[in-house]
Amino acid sequence: MTDIKEARTLTLEGALKVLNAAIGEATRIGQPMCIAVVDTGGNLLAFGRMDGSKGLSVTSSINKARTSALSGSPTGSAHADVEIQVTLAHENRWTNLIGGLPIRVDGFILGAVAAGSGSGTQDLAVARAGAAAIPGADMCVDFTPMGAEDTGIIRGATLQPRI
């Protein structure tokens, strides 16, 4: 066993490429976004708030990026049954809202990108466009959202059996 492991992380130059590619996609689809890019430790490297984006999406997009970098998974991948508990356990800095994507190349998490202000589908598309600015980045094409936002779960509701 060794005391040191190899690691890689985004540079500011890489983060700006990701940010600009994501802004380009948000512009193309006509949905102003808040876009955050973080390093492997979830530290903010680059951020942009497009004119017309939602003010509340500033915090959620940063939290999406942080969650994705630290978990190594797209946001929205936690099951709806645990998302509130995990959010509380992480002092509201973790989120299961769709739109955060780890930037992974050759098995290394380099950081993450996240977008917010559109639908979950739009947010994820913008994040994917950003991640694609890094050659060889994994687009997480097999990702299946499992959060309450995506499954239509209504908390506290009793489901009636189908007859």
TrEMBL record:
SUPFAM superfamilies: GlcG-like
Protein name per its UniProtKB record: Heme-binding protein
InterPro entries assigned to the protein according to its UniProt record, in alphabetical order: GlcG_carb_metab_protein, PduO/GlcC-like, PduO/GlcC-like_sf
Domain of life: Bacteria
